[in-house]
UniProtKB/TrEMBL annotation:
CDD domains: TMPK (cd01672). The lineage of its organism: Bacteria, Bacillati, Bacillota, Bacilli, Lactobacillales. ATP binds at G11, P12, D13, G14, A15, G16, K17, T18. HAMAP family: Thymidylate_kinase. This is Thymidylate kinase. InterPro entries: P-loop_NTPase, Thymidylate_kin-like_dom, Thymidylate_kinase. Its EC number is 2.7.4.9. Keywords: ATP-binding, Kinase, Nucleotide biosynthesis, Nucleotide-binding, Transferase. It comes from Furfurilactobacillus siliginis. It catalyses: dTMP + ATP = dTDP + ADP. Phosphorylation of dTMP to form dTDP in both de novo and salvage pathways of dTTP synthesis. The keyword Transferase applies.
Amino acid sequence: MGTGLLITFEGPDGAGKTSVLNTLFTDYTRRLGSKLVTTREPGGNKISEAIRSIIMDQANVEMDARTEALLFAAARRQHLMQTVRPALNDGKIVFSDRYVDSSIAYQGAGRNIGEQAVADMNQFATEGLTPDLTVYFDVPSEVGLARIHQYRSNEINRLDDEELSFHQRVRQAYLKLVAAHPERIVVVDATQSFDDVVHATNAVLVDRFPGLFN
Ligand SMILES: Nc1ncnc2c1ncn2[C@@H]1O[C@H](COP(=O)(O)OP(=O)(O)OP(=O)(O)O)[C@@H](O)[C@H]1O
Ligand SMILES: Cc1cn([C@H]2C[C@H](O)[C@@H](COP(=O)(O)O)O2)c(=O)[nH]c1=O
């Protein structure tokens, strides 16, 4: 049984994580084949995707902030047990579009529940499984939201819909996480052109894991 690698991708809405991840996944799969797995939170399997639908549903305006945090943690737990851990135990490299840092930023700071309280709850959900590397795509909230409204207006979810100050608290919380975990989190300037962001992300991965992605 091998020990794989967990690499997470984080950032405010519209930072470009998913697009960059898809591009790199296609590229790296040519070299790594099925050793590389890509997944997302909340989601990645049937139960977690079902929880995702409840969380994202724009009709669920009455959802309490702690309920939301618990649902994200429940989806994460199922994702970890059914998707991430088995892959890591198989020695795979798992790219996850979001993980615990998202809950700390969005629920802890965005919803004002408290970053430490959310971190503690996720310690229970994950039993402390920490990514080997986190790539954080940094973009001012206004830029990320403008991209979503310009290019993805048919896919706006309940969280995208929040007011600007919510998204600004999210970004500030991410920047605090970067400062607190410089050994784990590497920042990519996501205001650059798409190709430059892909290039910069590739450089981070090649630098951190020599010989694996190049
Ligand atoms: N560097 C970039 N410059 C301009 N547009 C970009 C850039 N990166 C991504 N986009 C566009 O912005 C939109 C949002 O990108 P994407 O869905 O990848 O972001 P995301 O970080 O995954 O957002 P979310 O977390 O809200 O799903 C897409 O339409 C994408 O094509
Ligand atoms: C994991 C996680 C996610 N969120 C938020 C962040 C986004 O607004 C959505 C997910 O949408 P995406 O298009 O898949 O990025 O959910 C959150 O608030 N808390 C979390 O733990």
